[in-house]
Amino acid sequence: MLAMDRAELLAFLGREFPQVAADFDIAAVTPDLLTMRLLTAERHLRPGGTVSGPTMFALADVAIYLAILSRIGPVALAVTTNCSIDFMRKPEAGRDLLAEARLLKLGRQLAVGDVLIRSEGAGGVVARASLTYAIPPRG
């Protein structure tokens, strides 16, 4: 069951993190999967015309954060405690990136998830990230 839907997640992101909200859109959200789109722009590119690693990290981080919030509600102080990311191939030029975020464990204090990133319209995985988040105590 979802605690926050697509519209609520986007409103939360815009309110709490306006500095990055314009870069992202949520394509779909279900209890099992959140698909996020990075609206790729010139500022996301590194020399050679590929999307930078820090940009792909941000996409994975925001996607899993919103996947967690979709299940627990608006908790602004949930934070990343660990991230491991594998860059597997160069993203295709001129395409947005899509991140599929899945929660593997959602506990009271920790959440663990995986994110697969692809270039829109292409089949191969560009990057894979594993993230752990700390969830602050309620109340």
TrEMBL record:
The record places domain Thioesterase at 48-121
Q: Which UniProt keywords apply?
A: Hydrolase
Superkingdom of the source?
A: Bacteria
Which Pfam families does the record associate with it? 4HBT
Specify whether Hydrolase is a keyword of the entry: yes
What the entry lists under InterPro entries is as follows: HotDog_dom_sf (IPR029069), PAAI_dom (IPR003736), Thioestr_dom (IPR006683)
Q: GO terms for molecular function, please?
A: acyl-CoA hydrolase activity
> Which NCBIfam families did the record assign?
unchar_dom_1
- Give the protein name, as stated in the record: Uncharacterized protein (TIGR00369 family)
Organism classification: Bacteria, Pseudomonadati, Pseudomonadota, Alphaproteobacteria, Rhodobacterales
